[in-house]
Specification:
Radius of gyration: 20 Å
Number of helices: 4
Structural class: mainly alpha
Helix content: 55-70%
Number of strands: 0
Shape: elongated
Distance between the termini: 57 Å
Strand content: under 5%
Largest sheet: none
Number of domains: 1
Order of helices and strands: HHHH
Mean pLDDT: 88
Low-confidence stretches: none
Length: 87
């Protein structure tokens, strides 16, 4: 059987990222949810992704791609420690 649900575009994008991070598709996540609802007769569980939220993910992606940087390269470990302890 096929069921269609209407979801806000931003919510769908955010959930797709979260589901992918825990190894699920939107369809498998909804099936899992509905099976638990049928079994428990309630909203049954709280799943959390193991990764940062969408805003933090965007920042991390920008840093990894080189678009953003938190600091300049360091010449030595003492220079890095100085920067970390006096930031």
């Amino acid at each position: 059987m096929t069921t269609t649900i209407r979801i806000n575009d931003e919510l769908k994008r955010e959930c797709d990222l979260i589901f992918a991070d825990i190894g699920l598709t939107m369809s498998s996540a909804m099936t899992l949810f509905l099976k638990q609802v049928a079994k428990t007769h309630s909203i049954p569980f709280d799943l959390k992704a193991r990764v940062p939220n969408v805003e933090t993910r965007k920042t991390l992606d920008a840093m990894l791609s080189g678009e953003e940087s938190l600091s300049e390269p360091f010449e030595s470990v003492p220079q890095m420690m100085q920067d970390l302890t006096h930031a």
